[in-house]
């Protein structure tokens, strides 16, 4: 490393997408329906309550299951990455990507989740994608479960609240890891695993109106995911010892609203509850704080005798996380206004600017998160989601001048650089997203994240033509200089 070089020589720069937000082709080549295919598009939206837009009930599922087309369900058509992947990967290569984070859609491999045999057409699609990435020397970073649970496992088993789902997931993980053992090195088990508590249907396939105690069902589902992740990690190391397995957390750092001991204590508690998930996956056990929480909320986790040993023996190699915003904790939230977010809303922080969708912009928070995670776990870290959702305008000359996005990335990558100087070990950085895709929370297209514009509106109309934004060339320069030139 040169004296001026901060980022490691083989730092993994790239971008990220999820299958359910990009692929489309929801019923092509034997694919089954997934949880994402149940989420409709709502024209009228309350950005201060975005979780309502992802709420799925027995009634909405019944309607979605009888709808045979993609109309009204944007995640069914995505941006048609399924048919455009060669074009898109060529653009990623032009930017200089070292890695590309994507998910495998579980229901494309096992259409019902409990099938005896995998769907060969689905397996072949990802073979083609990985071969295309290899052609350009781009390393895949693959998420096994990114909000794409087969609907049969929801309808017939009750989602992750049912322990039987563990074996179905492990079979799926073994299938794809065996198939792609020479094409994929980096694997993540569950995307933002804490979502199972925040939004149980999205994260755990749990239909709220079917549960007597939703919180109990959600934590039971989370436990099953922890066990499944550990078993998949165990099998991964048996299949190919070179594999690197990571967990993935939606890192939501909490600041106290005031210096009052009550607010400080609330922020401490909220942060500890967020890190419960990485404690289990990186340390191999539940943190002591959770015992009292479970007792006070009448939550009883049913475990098999071997569960604790499974968790302890099969911890992850690295910790990955998404970071978009910071939150505020207080014991008196009624004193403050609220703002939106993604799966959650939060108390307003008067020191931060807010996007149209309610995100509080806090680049310094990324450095804080990196330092705290590394101090706590002493494991390599990977920032696998970080980005700005914004409405882009095409100028008369056809250009897309997204200086606001460049400024966002400049500030956040600058803080990432500071964290590395602080001594934090960071493996890589994949922006969210590499290209415009359907929004996870609002199912709209106008909330754009990518360096590449996709011609499609919120109703799914458009040519699907791809077009470079100004940020495309900026990020290309960042990668070419290994993070040294952020101007």
Automatic annotation (TrEMBL):
The keyword Hydrolase applies. GO terms for cellular component: cytosol. Keywords: Glycosidase, Hydrolase. PROSITE patterns: GLYCOSYL_HYDROL_F1_1, GLYCOSYL_HYDROL_F1_2. GO terms for biological process: carbohydrate catabolic process. The keyword Transferase does not apply. Gene3D superfamilies: Glycosidases. The active site is at residue 385. Transmembrane segments: none annotated. One of its GO terms (molecular function) is beta-glucosidase activity. NCBIfam families: PRK09593.1, PRK09852.1. Belongs to the glycosyl hydrolase 1 family. This is Amygdalase. It comes from Paenibacillus kribbensis. The lineage of its organism: Bacteria, Bacillati, Bacillota, Bacilli, Bacillales.
């Amino acid at each position: 490393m040169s004296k001026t070089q901060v980022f490691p020589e083989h730092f993994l720069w790239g971008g990220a997408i999820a299958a359910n937000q990009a692929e489309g082709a929801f019923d092509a080549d034997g694919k089954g329906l997934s949880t994402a295919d149940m989420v409709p598009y709502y024209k009228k939206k309350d950005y201060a309550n975005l979780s309502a837009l992802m709420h799925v009930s027995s009634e909405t599922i019944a309607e979605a299951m009888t709808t045979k087309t993609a109309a009204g369900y944007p995640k069914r058509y995505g941006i048609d990455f399924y048919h455009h992947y060669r074009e898109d990967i060529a653009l990623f290569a032009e930017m200089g990507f070292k890695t590309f984070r994507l998910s495998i859609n579980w229901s494309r491999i096992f259409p019902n989740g409990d099938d005896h045999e995998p769907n060969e057409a689905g397996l072949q699609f990802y073979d083609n994608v990985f071969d295309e990435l290899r052609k350009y020397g781009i390393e895949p970073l693959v998420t096994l479960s990114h909000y794409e649970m087969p609907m049969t496992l929801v309808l017939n088993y009750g989602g992750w609240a049912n322990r039987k789902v563990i074996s179905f997931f492990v079979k799926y993980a073994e299938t794809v890891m065996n198939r792609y053992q020479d094409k994929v090195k980096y694997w993540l088990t569950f995307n933002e695993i804490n979502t199972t508590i925040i939004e149980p249907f999205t994260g755990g396939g749990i239909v709220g109106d079917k549960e007597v105690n939703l919180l109990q069902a959600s934590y039971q589902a989370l436990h099953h995911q922890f066990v499944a992740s550990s078993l998949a990690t165990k099998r991964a190391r048996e299949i190919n010892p070179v594999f690197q397995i990571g967990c993935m957390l939606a890192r939501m750092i909490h600041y106290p609203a005031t210096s009052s001991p009550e607010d400080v204590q609330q922020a401490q508690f909220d942060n500890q509850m967020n890190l419960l998930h990485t404690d289990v996956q990186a340390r191999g056990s539940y943190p002591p704080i959770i015992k009292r929480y479970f007792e006070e909320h009448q939550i009883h986790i049913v475990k098999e005798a071997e569960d604790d040993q499974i968790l302890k023996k099969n911890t992850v190699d690295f910790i990955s996380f998404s970071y978009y915003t910071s939150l505020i904790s207080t014991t008196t939230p009624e004193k403050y206004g609220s703002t939106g977010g993604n799966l959650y809303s939060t108390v307003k922080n008067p020191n931060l600017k807010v996007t149209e969708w309610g995100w509080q912009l806090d680049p310094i928070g990324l450095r804080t998160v990196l330092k705290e995670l590394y101090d706590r776990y002493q494991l390599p870290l990977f920032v696998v989601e970080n980005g700005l959702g914004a409405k882009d305008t095409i100028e008369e000359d056809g250009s897309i001048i997204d200086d606001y996005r460049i400024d966002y990335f400049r500030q956040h990558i600058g803080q990432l650089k500071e964290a590395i100087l602080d001594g934090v070990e960071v493996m890589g950085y994949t922006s969210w997203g590499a290209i415009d895709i359907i929004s996870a929370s609002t199912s709209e297209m106008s909330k754009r994240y990518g360096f590449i514009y996709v011609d499609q509106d919120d109703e799914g109309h458009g040519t699907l033509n791809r077009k470079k934004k100004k940020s495309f060339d900026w990020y290309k320069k960042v990668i070419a200089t290994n993070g040294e030139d952020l101007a």
